[in-house]
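Notes, Module 5: Reading structure tokens.

Key idea: the token line is not a picture. It is a compressed description, and you learn to read it the same way you learned to read a sequence, by spotting repeated patterns. We will look at two proteins. The first is printed below with its tokens.
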Amino acid sequence: MTSPLVRLTAALALGVVLLALPAKRPPVPPAPPGAAPFEWNQDSLWRALEGRFVAVRTAGCVDAPVEMSLGFTTVSTLLDSLAASDVAPSDPRLDSLEAGFFALGPVVAACPAGLREYVTLSGRLREVAKDQSQHWDANDLPSRQRLYRLLYGTRAAVEEAMLQHPDSALPLLVGRDEPSATPSAEVLGVRIHSGDMLVSRGGYPTSALIARGNDYPGNFSHVGLVYVDSATGEVSVIEAHIEVGVAITTAEGYLADKKLRLMVMRPRADLPALVADPMLPHRAAAAILARARSEHIPYDFAMDYSDPGALFCSEVASTAYHDEGLTLWMGLSTISRLGIRTWLSEVGVKHFETQEPSDLEYDPQLVVVAEWRDPADLRQDHLDNAVLDAMLEGADQGVELDYPWYKLPPARLAKGYSWVQVAFGGHGPIPEGMSASSALSHDVFVTRQRALAAKVQAAVDSTTASQGYPPFYWTLVDLATRATQADSL
């Protein structure tokens, strides 16, 4: 007769075998029709700009004030001309504007006396571009590419200059204080209103994937919707987190969570829906706040913005406004590269035309009220971006998020424990809506990104010491690519 110990051992062994059975890889949905990654195709320009920076830096800044003054005047004159009437995305003055702003970058990066004016000028350029985009078709490819080049390119140029002289950086760029009738409160020296959107970039590796992992790589990974109590002035931020779903926090709690950058956006006061009802943004925020207080709203890993049953961060704002009659996200993100789609499928994403946080910056219905950028955080942001860009190149070449088979049984047990916790109103180690295998794939991604970031940081330190200045972004990508390739050998 078989002893109880032997039977128990056999049962445990069978349990481990069953728990270790490989998870079937999820199917990878096709790319959205007609979608394709945006390509700058201007590597020679970036290298030329760096060459100009080195030349000005070597020669000193004696002649730079004259060159900067002429450049600032040229760009400002172009902006005056563009602001005077509606222009098409194909207007050649927009090419001149982009070229003129880029040309100023190396001189400002070498001579920080012009940095504050350069940052301020970028804010005006953004405002003029967004005003013009009201008359463009957000889903027309030339229009989208033009707006992306102007807004993303301008920010990239400014930040390269800021990172060369962090002590001279302008942490707060005040945008347009768009009129609003909704309750307000002051946060970090800026008056924010109920219905405003806080668009940020988190410090977690997954934040880089959210910001960069689409056809138009962006700068933001998270959206929170502001509610201001009209009686007390108390600020609440409604946001969706992978770990817990939709949650409510205070302004202090929101800011305590690591942010590598932060921007406040507000609906234009002249939108027909707001002209008819100026309190619409407040009602939208109040409605989603009430829903979050009355029910558990799970996180939407599928990124299906058309299903309000579960919400990812962008959906919190879009659903709230949609229910009040205002459709945000006039342009949707697409994800067409096979490597990114494969990785995202492994962590539960099923929809590859969706609402990304970075899209909000390009929505002509919204204005930028303020933007905060800290130089130390920007360095981390740029490093994480470069590492992620290099990792995604590897994904396109077939690199998978493989995990050791022996981690699957404990992960499945942890998932069972998490399911029980959620059933009783809590949350466990594996988020609701994420499978055990997805959680392991996610952990592999995070571990790889952090290990590569550490290697690239060491290479950055060495490069900075040898050339005498911090490497520009294109060099960061080169360093990250080398580190990624070395890891694969």
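Here is the second protein, with the sequence above and the tokens below, as before.
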Amino acid sequence: MKILVINAGSSSLKYQLFDMETESIAAKGLCERIGIDGHLKHTPLVGGKPVFDSDMDFPTHAEAIAAVLDKLTSDEYGVVKSMSEINAVGHRVLHGGQKFTASTLVDDKVKEAIRACFPLGPLHNPANLMGIEACEQAMPGVPQVAVFDTAFHQTMPASSFMYAIPYKYYEEHGVRRYGFHGTSHRYVSAEAIKVMGLQKEGSKIVTCHLGNGSSMAAVKDGKCFDTSMGLTPLEGVPMGTRCGSVDPAVVEFIANTEGISASETLTMLNKKSGVLAVSGVSSDFRDLDKAAAEGNERAKLALDMFNYAVRKYIGAYAAAMGGLDGIVFTAGIGENSIEVREEILKGLEFLGVKLDKEANKCRGKVQKISAPDSKVQVWIIPTNEELVIARDTEDIVLGRPVR
């Protein structure tokens, strides 16, 4: 079975074509600047075909999908002979609200539910739905599967997901903690249980998805028990351009002081805050590391704030779960920043965490980085959200229980 995995953003569309017999990627690519001037980079990974990397006109996601399918099936750049070889499409969908606790086959009711979540995911859900509808138009009759970022976190108890605000806002509008990066947390926590030699029942793991957007999850018995992002991806640790958790009164104070609206203030907290704002240098942690090494105190402060926040969540989640078997680092920063991992783990010795500094000198591979005598195992596990989407899609289309 061949499955196309689509991750549609507001002005971009990432894709990978999987051959599920070997779970290998036949081709991958990225459509950028949809609705502006358009660019497609398509990379075949089998058959020795050349890379296509050129500007193209993408007025909407429909044209982007059409271009992707054209390249996948073309004589020069293609990896399949015709679209009939693509058996299903799996879509990343940011927000499923409380309706979806697992991936699901797309039908009209599912699309309406995704549309109903537009207020909860205004930047992502409309684009995700456009990706689904563009594929339906281009590939009539081909099964489409929605895989939700929020689904993994639906196992949280109410004591973890409720906010202490008037209860009617939960009952009438679904205001609660939802969490994000769920597909990543689900993948790496399951892999961690395997490599650590644990049983799912009784396991207690903290997964750290650290990138330009970062979130933490407490995974108990293989299920999400708590997570750091909230109603939106703004809550939690400081991120590249997001502020993370702040006193809610900050919104009113800044709006009144600056004479701007609450919406404008939230845009600033989402896109112009985080380590970018604190450092005044960059949202890229590689730039911050370089600036801090050159003596930039604000860059150092931004890094210190990030590391401290992640460390604090690990400690809190260990307490919440009543213990800790393992810590997992994943995503761009978690997989690649030797310095960030080391700094985060400093001060966690009281939990029995002991870092192997030599083992930690690695990037982008599965690696145990805790010392042999560490009571808590610490691992780097590269995430693979696209593979999870492909597996779920295959299982649902074939009528099997989802792995």
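Summary for the second protein:
- Residues 2-148 form a domain with the Nucleotidyltransferase; domain 5 fold (CATH 3.30.420.40).
- The CA atoms of residues 356 and 371 lie 5 Å apart.
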